[in-house]
Amino acid sequence: MPAMSILETVVGPLAAAMLVLAALTAIAQFHRCRRARQPVRTLLAGSASLLQALREELAFHRISRYTLVGRLSVDPSEREAASDLRLGTLAELRSVLLEYDVKLILMTSEISRMAVFDALARDCDDLDVRLCDLSEFYEDTFRYTPIAEINSAWFHSILHPRYRPAGRKVKRLFDIAFALFVGMALLPVLALLAWLIERDGGPALFRQVRIGEGGKPFTLYKLRTMRLGPRGAPAWSSAEDPRVTPIGRYLRRWHVDELPQLWNILCGDMSVVGPRPEQPEFVAALEREFPFYHRRHALRPGLAGWAQARCGYAGSEAGTAWKLSHDLYYLKHRSLFFDLRILLQSTWQAFAGKQFTELRLPPVVVSRVLERATLAQLDEPELELSVSGEWT
Known about the structure:
Layout (H helix, E strand, L loop, with lengths): L2 H35 L2 E6 L2 H13 L5 E8 L12 E4 L3 H8 L3 E4 L5 H11 L6 E4 H9 L13 H4 L8 H32 L5 E7 L5 E7 L5 E4 L13 H8 L7 H7 L3 E3 L6 H10 L12 E3 L1 H6 L5 H17 L2 H17 L10 H17 L7 E3 L3
Parallel strand pairs: 1-2, 1-4, 2-3, 4-5, 9-10
Antiparallel strand pairs: 6-7, 8-11
Helix pairs in contact: 7-9, 12-14
């Protein structure tokens, strides 16, 4: 048989088979995309308040990917309210999944994880359903950690042998390169601003002790934006703070007062991206009031950060909880790519002048946290805070 005939005999069926395979792949991909666009019918295993909080959060972020069909009651003796979407109890899990075509179950801290696992293994192992912790769902969907929904077990992910955040050496090289480049480029601007601030009366630089990595104190440098004052109790800063000087108001609006912290970065006290360092007096009180607050000190504090980019100053006890939820998210998801994203978002906000953002208080962040803080204040004496110079 001629060689050309043999080639045609082999290539013809092979080409036809490849075309059929390509067509089947395209059809399968089409169906996957179609399923991905369909809302995921979601069931919450928890209280009505958590279901309502999740519903409001999805609406706020305009996320239509998930349809909340209702919830499983934690307490079998609980009575259903008129507006409550209570579909049953854990003992009725299979019938609820089948009746409402549930594809995703969200577990809250209000229900036993092992009880859910046992119910799924016993009654639902043949059903196409997925399971997720509510805290993990919030992180993947809204990009913050619901600190009222986590406990110490949440930190197992960053202790796992396979957990690989950005390398410290790579991050440090990036910090040094960034500080040198930006510092040299803006040195004339810093010199001019220092001269203007001194003309306003008082030193150009403001020094204050802050808490850094590992809980170690260091001296933070800023351009002075507030009037010098006597010792007294520090106060949270606000958009109309009367202590801010006229030139300081512009410096704070554009975040230019933070530029001397490039020296802190070169010295190794700070990083370009990380949690915002706080005063020792504040830290002592906040660690007592808010669970896991000390975990922020596992990282080197930053000039910019996920909490600063998303929350602004948000100066209050509730604002501290809101920022902590973002600091813990960064602790778990940090990477060099994430740092670059934070820098871009922070730069945009600086140009937009969005220093003081509207404070949002999702219940999964502040409800039980502030409730515990209130109880703690009833049992412990109030801590008197005092600093010298200016407050931030």
